[in-house]
Design a protein that fits this description.
Elements lengths: L4 E4 L5 E4 L2 E2 L5 H12 L4 E3 H9 L7 H19 L6 E3 L3 E4 L4 E3 H14 L3 H12 L13 H27 L3 H14 L4 H13 L3 H19 L5 H11 L32 E4 L12 E4 L18 H8 L11 E6 L5 H12 L7 E5 L12 H11 L11 H12 L5 E7 L2 H4 L10 E6 L4 H7 L2 E5 L4 H12 L1 H5 L2 H10 L4 H13 L5 H9 L4 H4 L1 E2 L2 E2 H8 L5 H10 L10 H8 L3 H13 L4 E5 L5 E4 L2 H14 L4 H25 L21 H4 L3 H7 L1 H14 L2 H17 L3 H17 L3 H17 L3 H17 L3 H17 L3 H18 L2 H17 L3 H13 L5 H18 L2 H18 L2 H17 L3 H18 L2 H14 L4 H15 L2 H15 L1
Parallel strand pairs: 1-7, 10-13, 10-14, 11-12, 12-13
Antiparallel strand pairs: 1-2, 2-3, 4-6, 5-6, 8-9, 15-16, 17-18
Helix pairs in contact: 1-2, 1-3, 4-5, 5-6, 6-7, 6-8, 6-16, 7-8, 8-9, 8-10, 9-10, 13-14, 17-19, 17-20, 19-21, 24-25, 24-26, 24-27, 25-26, 25-28, 28-30, 28-31, 28-32, 31-32, 31-33, 32-33, 32-34, 33-34, 34-35, 34-36, 35-36, 36-37, 36-38, 37-38, 38-39, 38-40, 39-40, 40-41, 40-42, 41-42, ...
């Protein structure tokens, strides 16, 4: 059963459950709760929560700490006695559920809305007074982050709006004396708020305190001049003159109600009805009060432009907008449709507006605010209001000059009406606010490239983000413009064309228009023209519509640093998107600044946020057309040499962080590939403290970035950097069986090193390719690469690397059944490891040598070598797991089955902790064989079958064959089949000795 929760944010943050206070913890959980309450019922993105908690001082672990603070709040609520879930985890953030929850902010809005619907001023005044009493002091004053402070200012403004409405109602009731005390206190708090001062002056005047009213005017004028350098507005000046002229007219204290609203007419736009009405220019939510009644000729504007043709998709967004017309909605319904250039914001707004126009019988107002136009300045709200007022029937001479007065008259004129207002192409929330009606019966739709979150804070605006179309919707759009027959005849080309247009409506319509005008062009030909990245944006231009110019407008307000990040990020190939560290490396700055710059690009709809990756990093990506534009800008604006230097720094950052991750996860003492001297870049604030808390997840998140980076390094001639990038990732490639990636990057880096005559790099990559072929059990190819690498390392007199190659060549010999040859190579390697003092590689080599002794039956010597190897402090978990697995095999053959099981379990635990799939397969095989010796056939079979599944998953043919060989000995149902499979595998990889064992075992079973 749920428990009643109450939250209060109109003052210090408070929470209670069944009347008992809830302990909310420290300042950060409280800030998090405040941010969720401000958007109660809606999903709050993780980035906004982070900003709400820490402001501009973000710690590296911010996003991880949010989850901890959410847990703290959930625990506090549960401890207080609430059974139902309060905070839910969503895909991009968190949501505070409003079921069975009372929130003073919502209560205040409901009370204000009820007061506006009241039929008598006495009822309105009492209801508004109850709303005002909900404020207990400065809103959330104990939380000082910019995000929360902005929301608090919005709620304080809402309080003042309600106070002004309450004062109007009190004056209408003929109670000016009762209004003076509260108004005086509010004016003292907000001396620059002219609407409050105007009402205070009126209340004082009507209370017979003419001198006090004039003194209030003088004080207000002094504040305005001292702090803003402005004279009072026209309304205040007119009221002062009226007070100077004498006492108020008799009965004025009872005559403050506005005239009834003009009657609704169905006349077309601009056509007056037969009987004019009058309306008082009285303030709405924040305007000033005029002292004259303005005659209004009732008209019904119908200003919506035609809806766009061939409209497709957007069903979820239309359903979101439909929520605006629900009868139970509180306050003025406002929605902000946001998205990148050309994504179809205006098309969606017009489609929905035409569908619901019948629900707004008093008309529809439309304006293009030109927030993102090439040839026009952004529209001034004052000019827009003048056009709106004239469209609503207000004579031009009656339109007041000041913006605040025009807003007040606009709201008064719409009072009691049902009008739909569509504000297209808005630049900012400040541009929109004066254009908002004051009545909840109207509805406002705003389109903008920015999210205009300030409207959500101040007016509860519904956010309707718009992304590109789906593939199916994109093809459907082409069908509707070009023709279904033409598209169905070239389905594959249509799909490719949609992809090349980013599945965005504007470029799709431009391409379709060109095809319509050129019936002889095929869709494949159009796609081929767009395939050329250097000319794609040139092709996507027709008449007044140009994709390049549309994107350019979104860049207009970027800071210089954000614009630089925009250009340089476009040069990096990042198939899985990129994290803030990449921008930090490109600009040689902190990750914190990079994060802020990326958010600027997201706000400008130039980057698409992808959420958090497995390591907890936020990731971003470009739409292809926006990236092409950014690259054009980079080529045109960057000085010679700046871009390659930035790319080198970015790839050095990838190298530096990858090596840190590898060292944390795999250890520092043993390298799979000899490293070079390429530069390493790391940010000052060490971001790996958080993102590398799970280093394997970080490496996984950046794997595709690494693959692309090696190719780019090769193209730029950064041979040493490409070689070291490969070396930094070989551990992951091997342990997670990313063999295709390994092959691709090692081959590309080898070619780069060969082109640069970089012998150390060539040798390292030959060794890497040899290691890959050894892992894949392609033994002839492994021998060829390893011998070539050894020759180069000898030429370079690189003794440590010679030892590593010799150890691998010895392993090849062992697998081929040449135990003597394998022992010789490994012993040579051990001599060199000892010569150079490489203890980690020494331990690893001892493990291989012990394997030779085990195969030749010298078990005591094999065990001694393993004990010696394990005694070496290598600080290398993966090496310890291999040695423990080998000792389990030796002890099993010695008959020490219990000890063998213990070693196998320890090896498996290490490989599980490392998430080393290949190592898990080998450890499970050794453990399964040890359990057989202990008389545990069921547990043994379970381990062996798990090993077989993993071996097949990672493609390790050697361990697959060995597991099948063991299963062939213990499973009676298909022993022969298992053994023959093992024999075939061993024959295929050239494992001669193992092949002979499998063949003999199969013959013994069938004999």
């Amino acid at each position: 059963m749920t428990t009643q929760m109450e939250f209060r944010i109109l003052g210090p943050l408070e929470a209670s459950c069944l009347g008992r206070p809830v302990k909310l913890g420290g300042p950060r959980p409280r800030s998090l709760l405040a941010a969720l309450l401000l958007d109660a019922g809606r999903i709050v993105p993780l980035d906004r929560l982070v900003t709400a908690i820490w402001g501009d001082r973000l710690p590296g672990s911010a996003r991880n700490q949010v989850a901890i603070h959410v847990h703290t709040l959930r625990k506090a609520v549960k401890t207080a006695g609430r059974d139902a879930e309060l905070i839910t985890t969503e895909r991009v953030g968190y949501r505070l559920l409003t079921d069975d929850v009372w929130l003073d902010m919502h209560e205040a809005r409901q009370q204000a809305a009820a007061a506006r619907r009241a039929s008598r001023p006495e009822e309105a005044s009492a209801t508004l007074a109850r709303a005002l009493d909900l404020w207990r002091g400065p809103v959330l004053a104990e939380i000082d982050t910019t995000e929360i402070a902005a929301a608090a200012r919005g709620l304080e403004n809402a309080r003042l709006d309600i106070a002004e409405e309450w004062a109007d109602a009190e004056l209408a009731c003929g109670r000016p004396r009762e209004a003076v005390a509260r108004l005086a206190a509010l004016v003292e708090e907000h001396p620059l708020r002219e609407g409050l001062r105007e009402r205070l002056m009126l209340a004082l005047w009507r209370s017979g305190r003419q001198a006090d009213a004039l003194e209030s005017y003088r004080q207000g004028r002094r504040h305005l001049l001292d702090e803003l350098g402005l004279e009072p507005g026209q309304a205040l000046r007119d009221l002062q003159q009226a007070i100077l002229a004498g006492p108020p007219p008799a009965g004025a204290e009872y005559d403050d109600t506005p005239a009834p609203p003009p009657t609704t007419s169905t006349a077309p736009t601009g056509t007056p009805t037969a009987q004019p009405n009058t309306s008082t220019a009285r303030s709405g939510a924040s305007g000033a009060q005029a002292d004259q009644r303005v005659p209004v000729v009732t008209v019904r504007p119908a200003q919506l432009p035609p809806a766009v043709s061939a409209f497709v998709g957007r069903t979820p967004q239309i359903r979101m907008l439909d929520r605006l017309t629900r009868p139970d909605r509180d306050g003025l319904p406002v929605a902000v449709i946001s998205g990148a250039a050309g994504v179809g914001k205006t098309s969606l707004a017009l489609r929905w507006a035409h569908e619901v126009a019948g629900r707004f019988p008093d008309g529809q107002l439309f304006t293009n605010l030109h927030g993102y136009d090439r040839d026009r300045r952004s529209a001034e709200p004052s000019a827009v209001l003048e056009r709106f007022l004239r469209a609503l029937g207000v004579p031009g001479a009656a339109v007041p000059p000041a913006l605040e007065e025009r807003t007040a008259l606009f709201r008064s004129t719409l009072d009691g009406k049902r009008v739909l207002v569509l504000l297209d192409n808005a630049e900012s929330a400040a541009q929109v606010r004066p254009l908002l009606p004051g009545t909840p019966d109207c509805c406002v739709i705003v389109t903008s490239r920015r999210r205009l979150e300030g409207l959500t804070v101040s007016h509860g605006a519904l956010q309707v983000p718009l992304d590109v179309l789906s593939e199916q919707e994109s093809v459907e759009l082409l069908e509707r413009v070009v023709g279904a027959e033409r598209v169905s005849a070239e389905q594959e080309a249509a799909t490719r064309l949609a992809t090349l247009c980013d599945r965005s409506p504007l470029p799709l319509r431009i391409a379709a228009a060109k095809l319509t005008a050129r019936p002889r062009w095929s869709l494949a030909e159009m796609a081929e023209r767009l395939a050329d990245e250097h000319h794609r944006l040139d092709q996507l231009s027709r008449g007044d519509f140009e994709v390049r110019a549309s994107i350019e407008l979104s860049c207009r307000e970027l800071s210089k640093r954000a614009a630089l990040a925009f250009r340089w990020l476009s040069m990096v190939e990042a198939p899985s998107g990129f994290a803030p560290w990449l921008a930090a490396a490109l600009l040689d700055t902190s990750v914190q600044e990079a994060d802020q710059l990326l958010e600027q690009l997201v706000d400008a709809q130039l980057l698409q946020p992808l959420g958090s990756d497995g390591a907890g990093q936020p990731r971003y990506r470009f739409h292809d057309l926006i990236r092409l534009f950014a690259r054009e800008q980079a080529e045109a604006e960057e000085p010679c040499g700046a871009a390659p230097a930035a790319l080198c720094r970015a790839f050095s950052g990838l190298l530096g962080l990858a090596e840190k991750a590898r060292e944390i996860h795999f250890g520092t003492r043993y390298l799979k590939v000899p490293r070079g001297d390429a530069p390493r870049w790391l940010p000052d604030e060490a971001p790996w403290a958080v993102s590398l808390s799970d280093p394997l997840a970080w490496l996984e998140s950046e794997r595709l970035t690494l693959v692309a980076a090696v190719s780019q390094c090769a193209e730029l001639g950064l041979a040493d950097l490409s070689r070291d990038l490969v070396a930094s990732y070989v551990h992951l490639f091997e342990s997670r069986a990313y063999f295709a990636d390994w092959q691709a990057v090692a081959s590309k880096a080898f070619e780069a090193c060969r082109a640069a005559s970089h012998l150390p790099g060539q040798a390292a990559m030959l060794y890497s390719l040899g290691s890959l072929n050894l892992v894949l059990r392609r033994l002839p190819q492994a021998t060829e690469f390893l011998c070539a690498a050894l020759s180069l390392f000898e030429q370079l007199e690189d003794v440590p690397s010679q030892a590593i190659v010799l150890r691998h060549l010895g392993t090849v010999r062992l697998i081929q059944g040449d135990l003597d040859g394998g022992r010789v190579e490994i012993e040579r390697a051990l001599e060199l490891f000892e010569q150079v003092g490489d203890t980690a590689s020494m331990a690893h080599g001892l493990g291989f040598l012990s394997h030779v002794h085990m195969l030749e039956g010298r078990l005591e010597e094999a065990a001694r070598l393993l004990d010696r190897a394990l005694a070496i402090d290598t600080k290398l978990a993966v090496g310890e797991a291999q040695l423990l697995k080998r000792r389990a095999e030796v002890r099993r053959r010695q008959g020490l089955h219990t000890e063998a099981v213990r070693d196998g379990e320890q090896a498996l635990a290490i490989t599980l902790d490392l998430n080393d799939l290949v190592g898990q397969a080998y450890a499970l095989h050794a453990l399964g064989e040890a359990r057989l010796g202990c008389g545990e056939p069921v547990a043994a079979a379970d381990d062996l079958h798990r090993a077989l599944r993993i071996a097949r998953q990672v493609g390790d043919r050697m361990i697959e064959g060995r597991v099948l060989l063991t299963l062939g000995h213990i499973e009676s149902e298909d022993s022969v089949g298992r053994l023959r499979q093992a024999a075939d595998i061993f024959a295929g990889i050239g494992a001669t000795g193992w092949h002979e064992q499998a063949v003999k075992a199969a013959l013994a079973v069938t004999a």
